[in-house]
Amino acid sequence: MKFLALGDSFTEGVGDTSMVRPNRVRGWADRVAEVLCTQGDWQYANLAIRGKKIGQVINQQLDAGLALRPDLVTIYAGGNDILRPSADLDALMRGYDGMVRRFIEAGSTVVLFTGFDTVDSPLFNKTRPRTAIYNEKIREIADNHGAIVADYWRWREFSDLRYWAGDRLHMNEFGHTLMAYKVLELLGKHNIADPQWGEQINLPGLPELPVNSRGERLRQDMGWAREHLGPWVKRRLTGTSSGDTLSARYPDYVKLS
């Protein structure tokens, strides 16, 4: 059996640092693959690269993914488009529909992700209406083609700040671990993996939430702006991406342990 992961930073694994993995990240897809490869006869490829938008995933990952003839495909792209108010989500999601259709016609089982609900995020809550539109399109595509939906929007556990990295945009190792557990649980429900395999994911205890003074929170916000917001704005202004110099982490099938 062959598992292929497509998409952007969410699937590449940004926020879950590992100095011994390609691009120095691990992520939920690796963690799922480790269980599949260890417990069953699976192989794993991951073409996701941070910063990619829907059009780039279609143009750069679709044909390469089809050539790998996967049995199971996970796809998430759209977060970088949602952050751009000028992006035409209706047009982009028509391309997304075509991508899913081609994998389904090739005989793959496809898992799609809804976007995360940013209702509790002071920074990103203004993107919530666009995310809701994106999610409805995802559910419509899944209904039309028989794809499986991993409903990130409804997984409220991820609203806990302890699941998020310092950039406030990506999950940390705790978040990626929980996501791997949720995905394996979903695969078990659909008889793609053994329902017991999710127990192989060791969910670590979360650290206690710090109680910070107003001054400390202000210092943290200023540090975040310097370290993360400033470089992001610069990339937007210069038309560059954090993934421009990176390659797919696992362009061919491997077995992870």
Automatic annotation (TrEMBL):
One Pfam match: Lipase_GDSL_2
Broad enzyme group: hydrolase
E.C. number(s) listed in UniProt: 3.1.-.-
Domain SGNH hydrolase-type esterase: from-to ranges: 5-177
SUPFAM superfamilies with a match to the protein in the record: SGNH hydrolase
Keywords for the protein's UniProt record, in alphabetical order: Hydrolase
GO MF annotation list: hydrolase activity
Protein name: SGNH/GDSL hydrolase family protein
Native organism taxonomy: Bacteria, Bacillati, Actinomycetota, Actinomycetes, Micrococcales
